[in-house]
Amino acid sequence: MRAIGITLLLGSLLLGGCSSGSLPIVTSPDTPRPTYVAGDVIVGFYDNVDEQEADAMFTRHGLTWTSGFSKNFSVWAEVVSGSPAEHVSRLSESPIVAWAEQRGSDILVLFNETASVESAQALINADPGLRVRSVVLPPKWGLVHVEPGTEQAWIETLQKEPTVRYAQLNHILYPTHIAAPVAP
Fold first, then answer.
1. What pTM was estimated for this model as a whole?
2. DSSP code of 166?
3. Is the CA virtual torsion 172, 178, 183, 184 positive or negative?
4. CA angle at residue 137 from 132 to 138, to 5 degrees?
5. Largest CB tally within 10 Å, which of 45, 63, 145, 183?
6. CA dist., res. 54 & res. 68, Å (int)
7. Cα distance between residue 39 and residue 175, in whole Å
8. Rounded Cα–Cα distance for residues 145 and 154 (Å)
9. Phi and psi for 94 in degrees, rounded to 5?
10. What is the pLDDT of residues 138-150, one digit of tens each?
């Protein structure tokens, strides 16, 4: 009885889709699928590059892009003395701190977009019970839009730029299946 119910449910869903006049065509597993988004190139920058420098480089090449630069960064602080909870509380009161949490014997501090690495280090170093263990900067990257079919030429051109760490095809988001409407 349960199998009949499932069959009826699936049948009604499939027939309901037919009334629209078009069904998606899903390719067979043997059909080659794209492995990247045509016209998209991911460009990574060195840590010392800012968004304005990246924008100027793309503008020189006549390209449009979407920034992946994050304005936040983190600092691991080692607790040398004192109560980690008190350090977390004090750090959390700072206007440049997004949040602070104890992680094991250390404290992880996420700084907001108003902080600089220097101001973050100064805040932590101002507390004699804390010491900066490491600064974690997010990757600086952008998605550049080029004419489909010219991706490899642009990758080679962009990799020659002194501010560019890498340039590659956009494999981050690509279609997992191909579906197209059937003509009525």
1. 0.61
2. E
3. negative
4. 150
5. 45
6. 11
7. 14
8. 10
9. -70, 140
10. 899 999 999 999 9
Cα separation, 147 vs 61, whole angstroms: 13
Assigned fold of 27-69+139-184? Alpha-Beta Plaits (3.30.70)
Looking up tokens 């590659």 gives: 168
Q: How far is Cα 124 from Cα 91, in angstroms, rounded to an integer?
A: 8
Distance CA 103, CA 123 (A): 19
* CA-closest candidate to residue 182, choices 38, 19, 6, 22: 22
User: What is the Cα–Cα distance from 74 to 133, expressed in whole angstroms?
Assistant: 11
Please provide the DSSP assignment of 22-79 as one string: -------TTS---SS-TTEEEEEE-TT--HHHHHHHHHHTT-EEEE---S-EEEEEEE
Q: What type of residue is 179?
A: A
- Which residues face 101 on adjacent strands? 108
Class at the top of the CATH hierarchy for domain 73-136? alpha beta
- Residue spans in the chain of domains classed CATH 3.30.70.100: 73-136
Tell me the two tokens of residue 162. Answer: 């002194």
Q: What's the count of helices (H) and strands (E) in the chain, helices before strands?
A: 5, 8
Residues in the chain: 184
